Amino acid sequence: MLIELHTHTNYSHGTKVFYDGINTPAEMVKQAEKMGINAIVITDHDGIRGALEAQRYAKKNNLDVKVVIGEEVTSSDGHILGIGIQETVPPKLSTQETVDLIRDQGGVAIAAHPFDIKRVGIGKNAIHCDAVEVFNAQNLDRLSNFKAAHFAKDHKMSMTAGSDAHSARMLGHGLNIAKKGYTDEDIIKYVRKGRIQIKPRYPSMEVVTDLALNRLKMSSDYIGKYIEDNYSWPKRPISKGMLKMVDLYPGKISPVFRAFSYFSLANIIVYSVLHHAFERR
Question: Please, what are the domains in the chain?
Fold first, then answer.
């Protein structure tokens, strides 16, 4: 049984870039079935509307994929995945309060990307969760995942993988393998008791760039207003010029964006090495 534990739809929104996820719930579920994924957990940011819509769509169209209700909760300490819940868990509560509310609904709490370099994970507070996401496909620096894996092993905690798929193309990069059992309770039990194997695979730069460009294009009006309200010269005209280039996509990716993607990846790796090196001191 192949399980996706960490996915997003266009119901996930960001601050600077409005559309954090770019595909509809229906598109995510259809792609999961096409790829032979048996169960998918929709974990939009601080809400379950996308998950409920995906579940209704799968049932109405008799798709051969189980949809589980989930949420990526923004606690006061960082992101926590609530798997197998029925109601939205409010954001900005402490780690322990968030975990308790997830468990009260019969769900399981997973520390999402706990040591990511963007510092939106809960770090060592992961000890309060039921499992640790030791592989997150969006952690392109790799070191953040290694640290999460060591933390889970040191504390004898269950380990999971997450594609953290914000697009249909990103599905399948962080799969979990378990015995057959298609109920919510089965999946929750597998996670809680560590009865799963992870199947990690980092996305290509083409997939990463495609996500970034689609996010920008879908959020173009929102970003334009943000630039106008918050940026000054020369950042404002440069940012507006870059944003106009996004309108050419889809199609051939601009050499400027391609070069910027690799430059950004190099910076991420260097920053990650320095961040984790100094953090150990």
Answer: 2-204 (3.20.20.140), 206-279 (no CATH)
The Cα–Cα gap between 218 and 258 comes to: 19
Mean pLDDT of 236-265: 68
If phi > 0 it is left, if psi is from -120 to 50 it is alpha, else beta; for residue 92 that is left
Mean per-residue pLDDT for 181-185? 85
* The pLDDT value given to residue 281: 40
Helix locations, the chain, DSSP H: 25-34, 49-60, 95-104, 143-154, 184-192, 205-218, 220-230, 235-246, 255-279
Residues facing residue 116 across a β-bridge: none
Both tokens assigned to 268:
């991420």
**What sign results for the dihedral spanned by CA atoms 61, 64, 69, 74?**
negative
- The candidate with the shortest Cα–Cα distance to 34, out of 75, 55, 64, is 64
Half-sphere exposure of 172 toward its Cβ, with a 13 Å CA cutoff? Answer: 13
> Residue 154: is its pLDDT beyond 90?
yes
Lowest mean pLDDT among 118-132, 164-178, 197-211, 226-240: 226-240
Q: Say if residues 201 and 192 touch (Cβ distance below 8 Å).
A: no
The rounded percent of the chain whose pLDDT value lies above 90 is: 69
- Are residues 273 and 142 in contact, defined by beta-carbon separation less than 8 angstroms? no
Q: Token match 């468990």: residue? A: 103
Band (pLDDT 50/70/90 cuts) for residue 251 is: low
Q: Which letter does DSSP use for residue 165 in this model?
A: B
